[in-house]
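Technical note accompanying the year-one report. For the benefit of new consortium partners, we illustrate the data format agreed upon in the data management plan: each record pairs a sequence with a structure-token string. No post-processing was applied to the example shown here.
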Amino acid sequence: MAVPSDRDWDDYIDAVGRALGLPIEDAWRPAIRANLAVSLKMARLVDEFSLPDEAEPASVFTA
């Protein structure tokens, strides 16, 4: 997967902002782009980690 350009991020930011009804100020865009880029890097790390077919989710314990 290619690294999104600033224009790609801006299109995404605009679309999500409209969908959520959030006003996005131009001054916020560099920080939003940086956050999205870091999130994408973390997601790729998780996606690239292969699990064996017999892997099971951990149990959930509550007190």
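Partners are asked to follow this layout when depositing records. The mean pLDDT is 92.
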